[in-house]
Specification:
single chain; 258 residues; mainly alpha; Outer Surface Protein A, domain 3; 52% helix
């Protein structure tokens, strides 16, 4: 029993040290000196590959953030992030959930206080794209649901609502429309808060800017079971009708989940 326990303990130590080394927590591997049986040049190649895969995943998931700070800065951020928050999912494309909070806590990026919210917007797109499918309601079913009460409707699982005190939708759109030439991006950060609906349509994550009033209506639909009838939003306003029509056309209404 003792011998087996010792072997198990050594294996766990070895695995932890290997993981620390690959994720750039090199101190542990070097201090305990238990990786000497592995060829360092080969291990270094493997280590670089791990970092490259993490970098590519985060660069894909946070493309706008990468473009804002530049590749060199982003690479340094990735090295620090994977050391603090290594991948713990089998689906690596979903890596980066805590990246916005990580950005929020970086002292050297405090001069970009809006950047973490840009990252949150991009992460919502990742979640939206990977959301489960659901059966969409037809226009007549949505109309019947509205007539019966908002608790008879729900937004599609791919839908995400986001608000920010910063114009993050505008920042994202500017970088998106000038993907080949960042010199054309002119950020206006004094325009105030912005609101957005993130959703998946035709196998792509999309962003729809919203007014604060329409955002409040969609929030009410999202939490309809908790909304008092006296607080029910006005669905007859032209701007609300326009957005609701878009959502119906994109199949973004479903029946509430039981």
């Amino acid at each position: 029993m003792t011998k087996n326990h010792g072997a198990h303990s050594n294996l766990l130590k070895y695995q932890q040290s290997m993981a620390d080394y690959l994720l750039y927590k090199a101190d542990s591997a070097d201090k305990h000196n238990i990786l000497l049986d592995v060829s360092r040049p080969q291990l270094g190649i493997y280590r670089n590959n791990v970092r490259a895969v993490c970098y590519e995943t985060l660069a894909d998931n946070f493309e706008t953030v990468c473009r804002v700070v530049g590749e060199d800065c982003f690479t340094g951020m990735v090295v620090r992030f994977i050391a603090e928050r290594p991948p713990d999912l089998q689906q690596l494309s979903l890596y980066g959930k805590y990246f916005p909070t990580f950005i929020d806590n970086l002292p050297e990026l405090q001069h970009l206080p809006w950047l973490a919210d840009v990252a949150r917007l991009e992460w919502q797109m990742v979640e939206s794209f990977n959301a489960p499918s659901a059966v969409s309601l037809t226009a007549s079913q949505v109309a019947a649901g509205i007539e019966a009460g908002l608790d008879h409707l729900a937004l599609h699982p791919s839908c995400r609502l986001m608000s920010s005190p910063w114009p993050v939708v505008s920042v994202w759109q500017q970088h998106w429309h000038h993907r080949e030439d960042d010199s054309q991006v002119q950020l206006r950060l004094d325009t105030g808060a912005e609101y957005a609906l993130i959703f998946c349509y035709q196998q792509a994550a999309r962003i729809r800017a919203l007014s604060s009033d329409v955002y409040s209506v969609l929030q009410a639909i999202n939490r309809a079971a908790d909304v008092d009838s006296a607080e029910a939003p006005d669905l007859t306003r032209p701007d609300v009708i326009q957005v609701l029509a878009e959502l119906i056309a994109h199949g973004l209404f479903i029946r509430p989940l039981e």
